[in-house]
Amino acid sequence: MSANTFGNAGFSVLLPGARLEGRCGPTNARVRCHLGVKIPPGCELVVGGEPQCWAEGHCLLVDDSFLHTVAHNGTPEDGPRVVFIVDLWHPNVAGAERQALDFVFAPDP
C-alpha cells in the first residue's frame, strides 16, 4: 500500500497509563497488521466492541475503520507496549480499485 497516503509502516509505542480514546481510521480499504514486539500485562485493544489480543512475535490483523480503543493499564515497571504496524490492502479491494485509489491518493511529490 506504499503508493498512496493510506499506506504506512512504523512502530507504535504506548507508555503505561496511556489510553487512546475511541477513533476510526480514515478508510476501510486497508487492514493493519500489528506485530507484537513487547506486550506487557494490562494492554488492551478493542475493535468494534470486540477485545483483541496482541502476542509477542505474532501478527494481528485489524480493520481500523471500525471504532477502536487502545490502553496500557500496566505499571511503570512493565515498560512500554511496542507494536510494529504495517498497512495492507483490504482483501476485498480489487486490483482496479487499488490502482484508482493509488492515483487519487498519491502522496505529494
From TrEMBL:
A single Gene Ontology CC term: membrane
GO molecular function: dioxygenase activity
UniProt keywords, alphabetically: Dioxygenase, Oxidoreductase
One protein family per Pfam: Asp_Arg_Hydrox
All residue ranges annotated as the Aspartyl/asparaginy/proline hydroxylase domain in the record: 4-91
Stored InterPro entries: Asp/Arg/Pro-Hydrxlase, Asp/Asn_beta-hydroxylase, IPNS-like_sf
The keyword Oxidoreductase belongs to this UniProt entry's keyword annotation: yes
Similarity comment text for this entry: Belongs to the aspartyl/asparaginyl beta-hydroxylase family.
Protein name (record): Aspartyl/asparaginy/proline hydroxylase domain-containing protein
Organism name: Sciurus vulgaris (Eurasian red squirrel)
